[in-house]
Structure formats: C-alpha cells, structure tokens
Amino acid sequence: xxxxxxxxxxxxxxxxxxxxxxINIVLTxxxxxxxxxxxxxxxxxxxxxxxxLDEYREVNKELFLLSLxxxxxxxxxxxxxxxxxxxxxxxxxxxxxxxxxxxxxxxPNDKKIKISENIIKLSNRSITIVxxxxxxxxxxxxxxxxxRIGQVTQKANLDLSDLTQQIDNNLSLLQKEYNTRYDAHQTxxxxxxxxxxxxxxxxxxxxxxxxxxxxxGIINSIVRPINALQTSALxxxxxxFDVMVKTxxxxxxxxxxxxxxxxxxxxQKNFEEIKRKNKELEQxxxxxxxxxxxxxxxxxxxxxxxxxxxPIEKDENSSTYVRFINEATKRMSRLVKGLLDYSRIGSxxxxxxxxxxxxxxGVEDDLAxxxxxxxxxxxxxxxxxxxxxxxxxxxxxxxxxxxxxxFRAKNRSPxxxxxxxxxxxxxxxxxxxxxxxxxxxxxxxxxAIFQRLHNQSExxxxxxxxxxxxxxxxxxxxxxxxxSIPTVGSTFYFTISNKQ
Length: 500
Ligand code: ADP
Fold this sequence. Notes:
Layout: H1 5-71, H2 77-105, H3 111-139, H4 143-237, H5 252-309, H6 316-344, E1 352-355, H7 356-366, H8 368-374, E2 377-380, E3 385-388, H9 390-406, E4 415-423, E5 426-432, H10 465-475, E6 480-485, E7 489-497
Parallel strand pairs: 2-4
Antiparallel strand pairs: 1-3, 4-5, 5-7, 6-7
Helix pairs in contact: 1-2, 1-4, 2-3, 3-4, 4-5, 5-6, 7-9, 9-10
C-alpha cells in the first residue's frame, strides 16, 4: 500500500458516494422528465380533447332535440330559428375549428383523422340544412305557402336529426379513441412513477450501504488505530513503557504508530538511564551520610569530653568555642542522619493495607508530650484504609503534624484537622493548621531538601522534613502541595494513588 493511502481511501470512498449520488440525480431526472411529459400530454392534450368532445356532443344533442321538437311541432318558429342560428353560426363553427385543429395535430395516417373529417363534413351539412330551414321559415307569407313550407321544413328537420345522430356516433367513436389514449397514458404515468420511486429506493439503498462501508472503513483504518494510539499514550503517561502499538501497512497512521513506538522506546531508555543515575546518587548519599556518621560521632564525643573536662574558669573564651563546636557537631549529626533517613526511604518496599486512622493514633502517641505542652487540638476525619508503605506513611503524617505544631502562631494554640476524600484514581488528604502560614513565593521551594524559611534561633529544624514527605507521596504515585495564607494558616494536600 502506498503512503497516504488513508487519504486515497477516503477520496475513493467519498468519490464513489458522490458518483452514486450523481447517477441518482441523472436517473431521477430522466425518469421524472418522462413522467412529466406523459402528464403534460394528458393535461394539455387528452383531457381537454375529451372535454371538448363532451361539449360537442352536448351541443349536437341540443341540435337533435331542436330538430325533433320541430318535427313534432312543439316549438314556435321564432324560438327555433333563434336557437338554431346561435348554434349554427357560433357554437358549431367553434367546435368544427377545434376538431379541424385536432386533425392537424395528428400524424398523417391516424384513423382519428378520418373520423374527424366525417364530423366536420356532417356538421357542415347540418349547418347548411339549418340555414335552408331558417330561410324558408323567414319567407313564409300566406296559408298555402305555410303549408308547403311546413312540409319541407319537417322533412329537413328529419334529415337534420338523422345527421346529428351520425355526428354523435362519430363523436363517440373519437371520444372512445381518446379515452383509450387517456387510459394508456394513465397506466404509463403510474408505471413511470413506480419506476422513479424504484430508482430512488435502489440508489438510496446503495447510498446507505456505501455510507456504511465508508463509515466502517473510517472506523477500521482511522478511529481504531487512533484509539489504540490514545490508549498507549495514556499508558505511557502513567509510566508504562511497554506499550508498542501494532502497525501494519505504510499509511499515515501506521507511520505515526512507528514514530510513537520509537518515541516510547527512547523514552524508556532515557528513563532507565535516569533511574540508574538516581540509584547511583542515592547510593552515594547513603554511603556518604552513613560513613560521615562515624567521624561525626567521634568528633561529638571528644568535644563533649573536652567541654566536660575543660573548666570554664580557666579560659572562658575557649570553653565558649568548645560549646559552639559541640553544638555545630550535633547539628551536623542531625543533618547527616536526616540525609541517611532520606536515602533509606523506600528501601524496604513492602506494600500493605494501612488503616490511616490507626496510623495517626500511633503518631499522636509519639507526639503526645508536644501535643500536651502546646495544647494542640487534633481533629481527625474519617480516614480510609489504603494500600501503601506503613513506615513511610507514618513518617509523612508525623512530619506534617509536627510541622503544624512547630510553626504555630504565637497568640493561639494549634488546631490541626486531618481529612480525606476520594477523587478519580486517588485519595486526597489534607492537613490543615492555623499556624504562621507561608508566603506564596515559597510554596514550591519548601519541598526541596534543606530548604528552610527561618533560622535556627526562631525554629529548629534541618529542612529535610517536607523533602521526606514529597518522596513518600511520590512513592505512592501521588503529589504534594500547599495552600496557605500568611498569619492565618496552611493546608498541606497530598494524593495517594488508589490503584497500587
Ligand atoms: P524543617 O521543619 O526542618 O524546617 P521542613 O522541610 O519540614 O523543614 O519544612 C521546610 C520549611 O517549610 C520550614 O522551615 C517552614 O519554614 C516551612 N513550613 C513547613 N511546614 C509549615 C507549616 N505547617 N506552617 C508554616 N510553615 C511551614
């Protein structure tokens, strides 16, 4: 498969769909044009002709009735001549012209031409007869004359009624022809409409199937690989480097998958390298702090000896110096011990179920003296049982609680509340105090090792406590941060993953 084939596949799929839609448009246009033509023929030619022939027959019938009435003498001459005049001079010529025009529109050998010509011929004869009768009726003067004319017009009316019957026969014949055409057109129209709906239905089905095909193609070749890539990226961001995505072919997403795999591989390499260096560093810190303890112990014991055995009265300055050395040595011992503890965190990795309520009760016991001396009020919420490293978690709570006591405000006794809530993927703990608070710009810095905001004379400490806390929290897949208002108090938040 060539590069860019997803694009090509999409173009092909949508191109085919557009092609099918175009065919649909063309076919429906053709089919609808056909049925429109049939309908137009019906509307403008056949139906009007049938109506016209109906009307013609009506008039013809009237002519027939007039002539018949005259034969039986049921009408006055005046009534008769007036109506006859109107029919023969206006109405009949009008219909004759219509029938004539009809013959013009028909193909040369059409049998309807003959019928129409007959109708015209018979109508002409009727008109002539009517004219003759009218003339005779007008010239009637005396009794003899009247008698004779009466006989002649009766005869002429008989002929006329005969003629009108012939005309009616022909008209009915012609009408039959048009009725047949009407039926044929109706049938054709319904067939064409049926075909049209068939075409629309068929192409609609093809369109739907094609659309489904394109959708499933998009899902298979685009959505699925993207989902797989997204899942892998998520796993990668959670620190799982074993997330190779399957790549087949050479389309854009396969290339993206390849690049992703390469990235994951090199990330894993870098991560391993960092881990190795970190371990080396921790080892170094451990060895250094461990080995420094021995000379420090010696230094400390000899300065203590010197302090004890060197009387102050002899040389006040020297004894002050010795005291300073002793204090500095002790401080250094504490720092080195803190460093050693820091490097030891997590060395005994054993996960267990830790009931935080019990854990805090232990911390409370350890700090009972300080809590009592400072009149600290400790409010503990309903804490969960979590999966974690007991010793480290205890150290975490101990550091946070003792800090909350240590950095208390001068004018009020410490009030500490500890609570926990569940958030997606984590337990979120908070340790809130009403102490001196921390300026905004130090909220990040205090978690780094040896970072302190006060000197020893104000608050004693090594600056390792919160670094410990951060290490413990990170061991549990979480984060630690502080929110604080100077002079009002601080809340330390940390999360512990609940998927250990
Ligand atoms: P240490 O307590 O030994 O000084 P930490 O690492 O525990 O070291 O704390 C670092 C610094 O953060 C402290 O020196 C202090 O200035 C500040 N800090 C920590 N906890 C609190 C708190 N609860 N209230 C106010 N400041 C605090």
